Amino acid sequence: MTKRKQDILREATRLFAESGFEGVSVAQIAKAAGVSQGAVFRHFPSKDKLLHHIFREVRESFLEELNQDFAFSTKESGRDMILRLALFFCRFYEKREVEFEFIHRNNPFRMPGVGDSCKKEIERIQEKMRELLHIGLSLGVRDGSIREMDVERGAILILGGIGGTVRQRLFMDFHLQDMEEDLLNFMDSALRP
Fold this sequence. Notes:
This protein is an all-alpha fold. The chain is 75% helix and 0% strand.
C-alpha cells in the first residue's frame, strides 16, 4: 500500500471516528491527508468504498494477528486459555483504539445500504471470537477449570464485557489498558467453579 493511500485511510478513520461517516466530506479527508480530492477518488471510487475498506482492513489485521499470536495449548487449562484469549482481544482493541472508536461511531447495522458490506466484516470478527471462546469454554468445563455453563452464552457474556468496556471509552476518560487487569480478574472470578 502506498504512503498516500495509508495517509488517506488513517485520516478517514480518524475523522469518521470523531464525526461519523455522514459528518465528514471527501474534501475534509483529502485536506487532512494532504492530498487532492482526485487522489482520494483514485484510491477509493466512493466514500462508501473507503468506509468498507477500513472495516475490511480491521478484520484482516485482526485475523492475521490472531493467527500469529494465539494458539490453544494442551499445557494450560481451559480457563487460562480463555483469559489469554480475552487478553489478546483487549490488546488488539488497545492497539487499534481509533479504529474501534470508528466502528462504534459508524455502526454498520445502523447504516442501511452503506453499511451492508461492512456488516459482513464485523460479523466475521465476531464469529471468530465466539468460535474461539466456545472452544476454550468447552475445554475449561471439561477439565474442571471453568464452572458448568452454557458455553454459547458464556462466550456472549465475555465478548459483551470486553466490548462494553471498550465502548465506555467513548463516554469516559480512560483507556482499556487502565481497566484490563480488573476486567480479566472479573472474568476469572466469574468462570471459576
